Amino acid sequence: MNVISNYVIINVRFLLFAALIVISISQFTYPQTQGENIFKKTCIACHTIGRGRLVGPDLKDVDKKQSEDWIINFVKSSQRMIKSGDPDAVAIFNEFNKIIMPDQALTDAQIKDIIIYIKQQSTGSGQKTMTAELVHSSGMTLEFAGKDEILKGENLFIGNTRLMNRGPACISCHNVNYNNAPAGGLLALDLTNTFSKLSATGISAIISNPPFPVMNTAYKSHTITQDEAFYLVAFLQQVNHDSPNQKPVNSQSRFLLNGIIGTVILFGLFGGFWWNRKRKSVNQEIYKRQIKSI
Ligand code: HEC
Ligand code: HEC
Fold first, then answer.
1. Of ligand 2's atoms, which has the minimum distance to the CA of residue 189?
2. Residue 171 alpha carbon to ligand 2 centre in Å
3. CB 256 within 8 A of CB 177
4. How far is the CA of 8 from the centre of ligand 2 (A)?
5. Which of 33, 89, 202, 217 could form a disulfide with 198 if both were Cys (CB 3.0 to 4.6 A apart)?
6. What percentage of residues in the chain have a pLDDT greater than 90?
């Protein structure tokens, strides 16, 4: 009898002990996987950890450079920090050609999880996953892209050719100043010189995993293929290259027209919802036509 009850007690103790270990291990690993998930979803289009600069800086060891509070504030709203004159924030903003890092709607706890992931990946060989280098499926690299590839990119951009997975044409939100390309959507950035700002890796990272909510929604279930990204980048490179030779009259009148339409839309919707304003700002006709036929 005694032997049996001893046996039971020992077993119960063992079970409790085992449960405790399992719980503490899962609590220990939980934030890491959590941070990894968020990082891969929301930061990876613009940042690497130990693989060099992308759209934004390499985040390797950023936790040693800045305090946790600083990082949390920066991730939540970098622009607020920059405008308040924080010297480090202003310096990194200038270093990165004033590219705006979008505000991230994350909690302190989520950002802390990301910091843990960054710490973990900063040691050793660095981050294992990275956005792929931009190569056409035929093996062609961008420096060998010629007229054909650029034309394919133009047609995809302005919607003459459908994107394979039926996403909307870029022009429904973005304008480029290029030969006879029609005027594009108004509120998303003009992409005429985006190539010099972001480089091929930056643009292709953004195309394959858009870090901006509006653009992300448009392509979430309509991903752009690798070859399409290749053509689009080849096109945007050409647009950037040719931009000094574009007819000034043409661009000025288009700019003026866009400005007027933009102002009217802005004022018309100012009292309305921010979210609504973003939606109305796309070239709805093109956008709808494309979405409808899905
Ligand atoms: C659209 C691109 C983009 C996305 C998405 C993005 N960042 Fe950034 N990030 C930047 C740029 C660009 C900078 C350089 C500062 C600037 O231009 O404002 C930067 C700077 C930073 C810095 C300051 C680095 C330093 O050396 O001081 C941190 C920290 C940071 N980002 C973290 C994050 C985290 C975490 C995420 C994901 C939750 C994220 N970023 C998402 C573009 C981005
Ligand atoms: C539904 C609207 C929408 C569509 C369609 C869209 N984008 Fe965007 N894109 C945005 C928004 C919003 C931003 C964030 C910057 C801003 O507010 O203008 C953005 C940003 C970008 C940027 C970063 C620009 C910079 O200088 O920081 C690039 C590059 C880009 N888009 C490329 C493309 C390409 C290529 C396509 C077509 C495959 C495309 N976008 C289609 C809405 C869109």
1. 18
2. 9
3. no
4. 65
5. 202
6. 45
